[in-house]
Amino acid sequence: MRDGKNGGAVDFLRRARQNPRGATAAEGLMRRAILLAVMLAGPVAAPAQTAPPATASADVAPPAEAPPADTYKQKDVLAAAEAVFGRGAEGAARLIEQAFRDFGEPNGYIVGREVSGAFVLGVRYGGGTLYSKVEGDMPVHWTGPSLGLDVGGDGSRVFTLVYHLDDTNDLFRRYPAGEGKVYVVGGFTATYNQRDRVILVPIKLGVGLRLGINAGWVNYTREGRIAPF
Fold this sequence. Notes:
By secondary structure, this protein is an alpha+beta fold. It is 28% helix and 39% strand. Helix 1 (4-18) crosses helix 2 (20-41) and helix 3 runs antiparallel to helix 4 (90-103).
């Protein structure tokens, strides 16, 4: 038994063969119908294009700078001491290297000059600039008496290493000073002075002759003073 739809199509084909003119007209109608359907459907969408993979920007941000160090490196201290004592000051370089072995890297240093004299009872006066990693640069002065078997006088360029100075206010006070030394013209000497955590290592280039052993203190102040006590 033939299906109704299939039978209708077969009958249409049979009639088209029997009437060629009618078949041609039917084909024309079919073409128009197809064209009309295409026009109603609208333009065919173009295939979506895949976006190219993102590439890293050429302008890459530079790495963050390391925070500044809070201590002075040995090479920087040696360069600063060379500016004070001149090139070829091997004695000062050896004393600085010894201080680095004993205490490590300082967080400050003092550059200045000092004069002192004694005949059993002695005095000293000095002044210079503190270079600090904590609070920057500032003027500093120091005075002090000495008592002991000490005769002579000297004038010195002074380069003092400063350790553990977290607050510059801690510098301005008295430090015990005991020195057993011989100054030879053009010679260097170093002493260690400590109060609480703060350690001072004054390195001096003397221009005079002073012999003896003395004990006393060094008082650091913000302003110069006449009385050494």
